[in-house]
Amino acid sequence: MLTKTIKDQNKFQKDSTIGSYWITTFGCQMNKADSERMAGTLEKMGYTKADDELKADLVLYNTCTIRDNAEQKVYSFLGRQAKRKHKIPSLKLVVAGCLAQQEGESLLRRVPELDLVMGPQHVNNLENLLGKVDSGNQVAATEETFISEDITNARRESSICGWVNIIYGCNERCSYCVVPSVRGKEQSRYPNAIKSEIQKLANDNFKEITLLGQNIDAYGRDLPGTTKEGRKENTLTDLLYYIHDVEGIRRIRFATSHPRYFSKRLIQACYELDKVCEHFHIPFQSGNNEILKLMARGYTIDKYKRIIENIRSLMPNASITADAIVAFPGESEEQYRDTLKLISDIGFDQVMTAAYSPRPNTPAALWHNQISEEVKKERLKEINELVETTSKQRNARYLDSIESVLIEGFNPKNSSQIMGRTRTNRLTFVEIPKNIKFNFSLGDEIDVKINEARPFSLTGILCL
Asked: Alpha-carbon Rg of the chain, whole angstroms?
């Protein structure tokens, strides 16, 4: 950890009173979960959530570095806050997350108004790091560290659905991905600690949990213990059985999976355990084996297809979602067409797409066969059109069916509707009956007859 004493005390004078905070989160679900934990820490310290980013006493950006445009957006936000700090020296500016880990001390030089730069592995140490800031220091906390259990209650953005980290970091070395260098090595939490957190959520009336990990089906391979059959004693499959009996939790999800570790045993567990939802997010990234090899993904398209076949053999209506990258260095038109073909052949419920973006400290960023921005835009536009068409076709299976929807709140665009998700994670809007008495609470599960299917959401009527 770097701690640099500020010489210009007037410029960085600190206000001794605890004030308001604002957190902006960029990127993945892991970042969202980290932000909830940091918000919990700040409120434990005495901060209150601000109503306006430009009026907060402490501003924290929890950053992503997967795409260059996410980085540039952060720098734009920081420029605005730096101007504020020149007028209000007591303002605390914090950058957390993957960009912070990637840039480290250099971020302090680029934006000298910053007080704290901290990698994702230091989330649980936020209070101590802010203590160093209050002592008149500028701090960069990016060194590798063991992530200790966090006893702070996260400030959950939802009162119904909660994120639960079960494994930090990633040991994969995909040639395009910066995650291992910014989130560190895999570190699995012990099952009892995970179950304790889930029990706490259940006691607080949460109804759904999503287990999170950058590479979630690799869970447990760093933990001790081997079964008599020779496999690891703690796996994602074993964890699902272990946590399934927590009373009050009705739905269990997990993300993000890696095809390399998605086993038949895991699929069987998802089928047997009634709380585990029939929704699987398994990125394929490319539909071409040569590109997958260049990406260092560790599987073939045939293996990926077998995983989907095994899921659908037990759960025919399961929702399958994925991630895909187009215009990877050297990707030919024919190889790109293989990705389109895979989407059509499998019929994904949704695919999160992106054009390849060179990232620092990744092998692919140094290759000389980069694809032009014009081709990237063309391919991204075409694949997005296909994804929308395929998603709408898949959603047609819901028409006239009755789905169980967990109520999460009101439709922010239409107060006459409530909204929630099916077990397959499809966002669903439901008109509130006007002519009959309908009492409901957040977290209730209601039966809904689907009468409209769009590419990425559904609408239905309440079954009375």
From this structure: 23
How far is residue 371's CA from residue 326's CA, in Å, rounded to a whole number? 10
**φ, ψ for residue 226, nearest 5 deg:** -135, 140
- The pTM (predicted TM-score) of the whole model is 0.77
Alpha-carbon distance 336 to 327, whole Å?
7
CB atoms within 10 A of CB 51: 9
Give the pair of three-digit tokens for residue 13: 């004078």
Full DSSP string of 103-114: HTHHHHHHSTT-
Cis peptide leading into residue 362 (ω within 30°): no
- Spatial CA neighbour of 101 closest among 168, 21, 44: 168
Residue 106's Cβ-side half-sphere holds a number of Cα atoms within 13 Å equal to: 4
Backbone φ/ψ region at 282: left (φ over 0), alpha (ψ -120 to 50), beta? beta
Helix (H), strand (E) at residue 410: strand 402-411
> Two tokens at 442?
């957040």
Q: Which pLDDT tens digit goes with each residue over 212-244?
A: 998 999 999 999 989 888 888 999 999 999 999
